[in-house]
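Researcher: Quick sanity check before group meeting.
Model: Go ahead. Protein one:
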Amino acid sequence: MAQINLDGARPLYLQVADDLEAQIADGTIPRGGRVPSATQICDTYDVSRRTANEALRVLRDKGLVHGVVGRGTFVVEQDD
C-alpha cells in the first residue's frame, strides 16, 4: 500500500485510486478479483467513505472495475 500524502496537492481519492490501480496492474488484485469494499478502503487508507467511493468511481470510469449489485466491485477481465 502506498503512503497517502495528506499535505499533498493531489486529492486523496486520486491517491487511493492510483494505489488500487497499481495493485491491479501488478496482479496483487487479479483479473476477476474482488476489489476492497469502500469500508475496507476506509480502514486501510484511513479515509472517509466519500473518498473511498470516489476512488472506486475513478477506477470504474477508467474501465478497470465493474460493480455487481449485492456482490461487490471486481477487476474487469480483459483479453491480452
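Researcher: Fine. The other one?
Model: Protein two, sequence then structure:
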Amino acid sequence: MSAPDSPQPASDDDPSHVDKDTSHIPPLTTRVVIAEDEALIRLDLKEMLEEEGYAVVGEAGDGQRAVELAREHRPDLVILDVKMPVLDGISAAEKIAEESIAPVLMLTAFSQRDLVERARDAGAMAYLVKPFSKSDVVPAIEMAVSRFTELKALEKEVADLSQRLETRKLVDRAKSILQTEYGLNEPAAFRWIQKTSMDRRLSMQQVAEAVIQDAEEKKAAKGQ
C-alpha cells in the first residue's frame, strides 16, 4: 500500500492551520472536577482554571469523592492528585477510565517514571508535576482532552482491546513523525490520520503503518 499524501508543513497562510497562540484557549463551557487533598493547592488550581475560562463544577479532597462527583456531573475533564486519602488518585483514575466518564489529568509531586507509567496504565491521559504554573496547566489539559478524544475514536474503530493497544502505539509513532517532519501539533497530527483514514477508506492503523513505512524508507534512502 502506498503511503497517504503527506500533510503540508504548517503555515500561517494555511487556513486549516491552528494558530499556536490561540489553540490552547478552551471554550467557556469546559467543565472540570478537581480533587486535591491540600486545600490551598486546590484553591490555587481552581483560580487558575477559572481565569482561563474553565468552569469548576466539583471539588473533592479525596479520590472516592472525586469519582462520585465525576459520575454526578459527567464533566469534560477530571484533575486528580496522586496521593489522596480514602482512595488514591491512581485508583480513582482507574474507576473513571473504566466507566469512560472523562479524560483524567494527574497531579503529582513526583516525576519518577514508574509512577507516571502507573498513572498512564490506570487511564490518565496526561500529568503535571507540582509545583506548576498556569502556563503549565493549560497545555496539559489540552493534551489530556486531545488524547481522550483519540482514545474514543480508536474504541469505535477497534473493538478488541489488545488490537486497540497495538493500534494506539502505531498511531502515537505516526503522530510523532508527523509532528517532527511537518510541524503539526499533536491534535492536528491525529486529525490528519483520522481524516486520511476516512478519505481513503483505510483503518487508522493502516494509515499509521503507511506513515511509519514512508518515514523508514526516507531514512534508509538518506543513509545510502
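Researcher: One line on it for the slide.
Model: Residues 158-219 form a domain with the Arc Repressor Mutant, subunit A fold (CATH 1.10.10.10).
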